[in-house]
Amino acid sequence: MGGQPLFILDEDAQRTHGKDAQSSNISAGKAVSESVRTTLGPRGMDKMLVSDDGDVVITNDGATILSEMDIEHPAAQMIVEVAQTQEDEVGDGTTTASVLAGELLTKGEDLLDDDVHPTTIVEGYSAAAELAQDAINEIVLDADLDDETLVEVAESSMTGKGTGDVEAGKLAEVVVDAVRHAKSDNGVRRDNIEVHSQSGAASSATKLVEGVIVDETAVHDNMPTSVEDASIAVIDTELDVRESNIDAEYNVSSVDQLNAALDAEESELQGYAEEVVESGADVAFVTEDVADRVASQLAKEGVFVADGISSSTAKDIVEATGAKRVGSLEALDEDALGHADSVNVEKQGDDDVTFITGGATAESVTVIARGSTEHVVDELERALNDALDTVIAALDAGGVVPGAGATEIAIADHIRSEAASIEGRKQLAVEAFADAVDVLPRTLAENTGLDAIDALVDLRAEHESEGIAGVISEGQTGVVGDPVDYGILDPAAVKREAVDSATEAATMIVRIDDVISSS
């Protein structure tokens, strides 16, 4: 039968299907993965990212690199999501997850070229991922997570990242101290640890403060800059003349009426100051504005007041001091006040900041990250946050495993040993997964100056004979050895999450055989 052709898509829509779609998606995912591969490990390189506005970011943090890149391809965006998921779940290992996802795509493309069906690849990868998890569980170290071990975990996380003029080991001690202060019977509350960055000093000036740092300072020059044994109010209302809710016009026809209006206004403002003083507060943090006349009166009474406090900062103050946030001065009484050993205004670089230390419920701590320039301090802040997350992951999510590629060598070896028991073409995908995992120790070897092929052979031989083998950065090159002896440890949770997220992204991309984009 003849007839007119049937169009089901808009004439401006574009469609790519079959091998062309698979090749396009896989190439995009591989390209994104390759962009961060050289940052992996202690000898990894940095990337300079320049935005349209000229803003510059210098980092080797995988999550930061991928989030700053302007990526439009939907398959490439999935690799970015892998890094984001890794960052959200465990706070580190974003480069590992991204590189593994890219290599799984590379091996998947080879299987597709050999006419292995995408569903078979997905099934094989899923089976291999389960074997990888078994291997990780087997290699978890039977060791107490004491401070020394946690310092090694934190130092391993920061080695190779921008830490300015200070060794990663010194910063690792600060990180572990912060985590120990925030640890309770229910685990570590990450929200109780803040990293406050401030340029203008060497990175060696980085330190831990048992309390909260507030960027805002006193609203009046005559207010005290130091208050000991402070009673603290947190106020969620404006201490200024109240404005009418309706659009009204007032006619003043005499001087007496004007004076009466001014007296009423003055009385209202005076009342605000009196209520703060009568509550017993000698420090007040206000999320709204404080009128100059209220500030002046409170300054005469020796009360320290900071206004324009953000909601998140107010929350931190409440958690540190035990204060209650009040929405009106009528609710401000002695029971609503929090307490701290001291509230001090100190100069950090060119800026003044307020330190609240020794709070009544002080599980909150702040790591002050210092650096000579904005670029240095930004990278140091990222390194500290990653280290904090890895230490918490080690404590709360399953212990530690050997780093330096040793866990990946163990994963690949275990998968290969089990692959023979898997029937059919799925076995090819399982073996390809093992080969993909090898990209991680191979990249570590390349980045430390070793020959990748020779290093991989040595790693497998050392693992076979000793049961553990990693790439150790030593001087200007690297050696094959036991990473535990060198104190190179990673949280097991980081490895587990990297395997899962990379596998999910790779299998999703491999299954796509049709891309339809509308105009």
Automatic annotation (TrEMBL):
Residues 9-32 are annotated as: Disordered. The keyword ATP-binding applies. The keyword ATP-binding applies. It comes from the Archaea. Keywords: ATP-binding, Chaperone, Nucleotide-binding. PANTHER family: CHAPERONIN. Belongs to the TCP-1 chaperonin family. This is Thermosome alpha subunit. It comes from Haloarcula vallismortis ATCC 29715.
